[in-house]
């Protein structure tokens, strides 16, 4: 079975540009979460979506936004990119939301570099 | 404020030398504690979930335990292929987000 897939795998942008990252969850999974991982640190929560509704938002500026589509895939958008946005962006999916005690399974991420 | 602290930051072992990694947490309303393994350039790979104090889970050379304040990941007779960063994360009753520690970078030398 295919795991969580993310695209693109690598991306280079310049300051001020915007970026769209994409995620396809494991088949049958309806919840998608996004995390940012800076080198040498643990992942930090950005957003969670379940059944196309935002269910949680981390401590990130409004430049970060996301959405989930009817097929449960998701996009993360970042506007007005800053050097500090350089990181590995991870997508995780789970079957349901927290009430089902389901582990989150991660993709291999998109490595975003800002010049 | 919810906090997750992992120790040590880095650990070097000889093949066959057993040891333990620690994850201590200060949170309000723990739903579950998760252990992940992360290889360079890859996303975290799910290992275990623990839900209540006293619970233990095992997988090959790994065994995870949970108390009310911390979790341990015991590695028995490690092999070089066990080299990776091990991350622990907590999930609260109030939501689905995972709060991660900084990770322990494990190196097992042959």
* Through-space gap between termini of chain B: 41 Å
Q: Provide the structure class of chain A.
A: mainly beta
Q: Helix coverage percent of residues of chain A?
A: under 10%
Unreliable residue stretches of chain A: none
Radius of gyration of chain A: 13 Å
Order of helices and strands of chain B: EEEEEEEEEEE
Q: What's the end-to-end separation of chain A, in Å? A: 37 Å
Q: Give me the oligomer status.
A: heterodimer
Describe the protein.
The complex is a heterodimer of chains A (115) and B (110). Chain A has 115 residues and is mainly beta. Chain A has no helices and eleven strands. Chain A has strands at 5-7, 10-13, 19-24, 31-37, 44-50, 53-57, 64-68, 74-78, 87-94, 105-106, 110-114. In chain A, strands 2, 4, 5, 6, 9, 10 and 11 form a seven-stranded mixed β-sheet that branches. A four-stranded antiparallel β-sheet of chain A has the order 1-3-8-7, with no helix packed on it. In chain A, strand 5 (44-50) and strand 6 form a beta hairpin. Chain B is mostly beta strands and 110 residues long. In chain B, 0% of the residues lie in helices and 60% in strands. Chain B contains no helices and eleven strands. Chain B has strands at 3-7, 10-14, 19-26, 30-38, 45-50, 56-59, 62-66, 70-75, 84-92, 98-100, 104-109. In chain B, the strands form two sheets. In chain B, strands 2, 4, 5, 9, 10 and 11 form a six-stranded mixed β-sheet that branches. Classes of the chains: A mainly beta (115), B mainly beta (110).
């Amino acid at each position: 079975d295919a795991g969580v897939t993310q695209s693109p795998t690598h991306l280079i942008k310049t300051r001020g540009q915007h970026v769209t990252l994409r995620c396809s969850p494991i088949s049958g999974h309806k919840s998608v979460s996004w995390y940012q991982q800076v080198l040498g640190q643990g992942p930090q929560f950005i957003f969670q979506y379940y059944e196309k509704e935002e269910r949680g938002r981390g401590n990130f500026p409004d430049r970060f936004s996301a959405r989930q589509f009817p097929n449960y895939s998701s996009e993360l958008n970042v506007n007005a990119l800053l050097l500090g946005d350089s990181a590995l962006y991870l997508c995780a999916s789970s079957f349901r939301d927290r009430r089902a005690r389901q582990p989150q399974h991660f993709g291999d991420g998109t490595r975003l570099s800002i010049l | 404020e919810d906090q997750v602290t992992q120790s040590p930051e880095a650990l070097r072992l000889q093949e066959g030398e057993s040891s333990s990694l620690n994850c201590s947490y200060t949170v309000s309303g723990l739903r579950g504690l998760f252990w992940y393994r992360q290889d360079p350039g890859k996303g975290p790979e799910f290992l275990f979930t623990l839900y209540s104090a006293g619970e233990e889970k095992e997988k090959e050379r790994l065994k995870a335990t949970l108390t009310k304040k911390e979790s341990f990941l015991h590695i028995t007779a490690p092999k070089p292929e066990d080299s990776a960063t091990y991350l622990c994360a907590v999930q609260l009753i109030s939501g689905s987000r995972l709060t991660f520690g900084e990770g322990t970078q494990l190196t097992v030398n042959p």
